[in-house]
């Protein structure tokens, strides 16, 4: 008797594994480039858009996508004879189970992380942001050791040290390059495109409003720390949970709405939004950035289902290279010798860290967001920006 070969999932003849990896590579690259351009492009109105409103709309779109997919899955389980109202009530019960409040903490952390990503891309070029944001691998590993008492192999510790060294090399000024004003954090002549402050409440017409490298690096460092903490906390709370991937993301997106709206939209920018309007400064580029960030979760979900962690990290590495090349072409980014060496070390460290141990069953898969992944004992779900795009759940993006 001949054993049947399992059918390989495909879309229009293309294996879903390959399709999801290509899509993830494109999404990782395009998201940061579009977000960066949305903050430095010539203004279509008197002011730039409020990043707080962009973060809030991102969560609204993600919540709508999660609810739609979860309800569709619920209908498949219930069958066509079941009334829609009954399926909705069943989904409501699954989402608002007694312990759902525990997800409010990572939801708040992820909202802050998304806000800091806008601060970072407003003050750093896309290539530098992509490379530096890989520090989330380091913070996730450290939190997993301290909070989950995980052990890392010697090779992984070496890769983390290499990762830190590579990011540090990227930040060093290149020998012979023009001196940059580190006190003010302003960029050199090739990068003096004006960027709106992260709060979006000031005019871009004054000359001093240039990209502040120090602010950008600080925002990336804090975002990476939050990414690691939120991802590991998310895993610790939900390990062994029976909730589906989409239900968990409904909970996260739902609780993310509150800090995004009340802290960002109302408290931080409330007075200016009342004066200028919620959608002031919005255009096609801004909406594209929001849509790419929201759609990133679906892409990561496809990779979770059809590809493995090593392939996903490979796609992330390729997206870094694409971002560098695109930054040179679109933003006149100057590739220095230090950037090339540092980026190479970062890519090597990422590859070493994701390489499986000889005992694959005990291998630790890093939690990354654009790109944090949560590993459950029952392998029920692995969750992942900013990818970046960002970490413990599928819809939090910016690698």
What share of the residues does DSSP label as strand, in percent?
Answer: under 5%
Percent in helix: 55-70%
- Largest sheet, if any? 2 strands, antiparallel
Q: Helix tally?
A: 13
Overall mean pLDDT: 75
Secondary-structure element sequence? Answer: EEHHHHHHHHHHHHHEE
Judged by helices, strands and strand pairing, the structural class is: mainly alpha
Q: Spans with pLDDT under 50 lasting ≥5 residues?
A: 1-5, 178-209, 360-399
Integer-rounded radius of gyration: 21 Å
CA(first)-CA(last) distance: 48 Å
- Tally of distinct domains: 1
Please give the order of strands in the largest beta sheet.
1-2
Number of beta strands: 4
Outline? globular
Offer a few descriptive terms.
two-stranded antiparallel ribbon; 13 helices; mainly alpha
Description:
Residues 174-187 have a biased composition (Low complexity). This protein is mainly α and 399 residues long. The chain has helices at 16-40, 51-78, 84-95, 104-123, 126-132, 135-147, 154-171, 213-238, 245-268, 270-276, 284-306, 309-331, 337-354; strands spanning 10-11, 14-15, 374-375, 382-383. The chain has one domain. It is built from 13 helices and four strands. The strands form two sheets. Strands 1-2 form a two-stranded antiparallel ribbon. Strands 3-4 form a two-stranded antiparallel sheet.
Provide a brief overview of the structure.
The chain crosses the membrane at residues 49-71, 157-174, 214-234, 246-267, 287-307, 314-331, 337-354. This protein is mainly alpha-helical and 399 residues long. The protein is 61% helix and 2% strand.
């Amino acid at each position: 008797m001949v054993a049947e070969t399992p059918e390989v999932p495909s879309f229009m003849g293309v294996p879903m594994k390959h399709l999801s990896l290509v899509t993830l590579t494109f999404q990782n690259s395009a998201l940061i480039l579009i977000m960066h351009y949305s903050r430095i492009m010539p203004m279509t109105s008197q002011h730039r858009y409020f990043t707080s409103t962009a973060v809030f709309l991102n969560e609204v779109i993600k919540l709508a996508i999660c609810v739609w997919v979860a309800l569709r899955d619920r209908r498949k389980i219930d069958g066509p004879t079941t009334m829609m109202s009954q399926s909705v009530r069943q989904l409501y019960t699954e989402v608002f189970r007694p312990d759902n409040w525990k997800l409010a903490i990572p939801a708040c952390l992820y909202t802050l992380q998304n806000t800091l990503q806008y601060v970072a891309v407003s003050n750093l070029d896309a290539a530098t942001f992509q490379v530096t944001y890989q520090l989330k691998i380091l913070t996730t590993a450290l939190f997993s050791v301290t909070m989950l008492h995980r052990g890392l192999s010697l090779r992984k510790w070496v890769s983390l040290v290499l990762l830190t060294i590579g990011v540090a090399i990227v930040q060093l000024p290149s020998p012979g390059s023009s001196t940059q004003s580190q006190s003010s954090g302003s960029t050199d002549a090739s990068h003096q495109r004006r960027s709106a402050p992260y709060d979006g409440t000031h005019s871009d017409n004054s000359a001093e409003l240039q990209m502040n490298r120090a602010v950008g690096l600080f925002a990336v460092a804090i975002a990476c720390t939050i990414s690691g903490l939120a991802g590991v906390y998310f895993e610790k709370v939900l390990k062994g949970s029976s909730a589906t991937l989409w239900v968990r993301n409904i909970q996260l997106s739902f609780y993310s709405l509150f800090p995004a709206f009340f802290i960002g939209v109302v408290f931080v920018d409330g007075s200016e939004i009342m004066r200028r309007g919620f959608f002031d400064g919005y255009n096609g580029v801004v909406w594209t950035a929001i849509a790419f960030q929201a759609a990133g979760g679906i892409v990561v979900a496809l990779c979770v289902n059809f590809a493995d962690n090593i392939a996903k990290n490979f796609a992330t590495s390729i997206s870094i290279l694409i971002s560098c090349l695109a930054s040179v072409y679109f933003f006149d980014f100057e590739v220095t010798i230090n950037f090339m060496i540092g980026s190479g070390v970062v890519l090597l460290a990422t590859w070493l860290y994701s390489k499986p141990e000889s005992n694959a069953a005990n291998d630790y898969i890093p939690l990354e967001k654009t790109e944090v992944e949560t590993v459950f004992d029952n392998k029920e779900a692995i969750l992942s920006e900013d990818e970046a795009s960002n970490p413990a759940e599928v819809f939090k993006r910016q690698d």
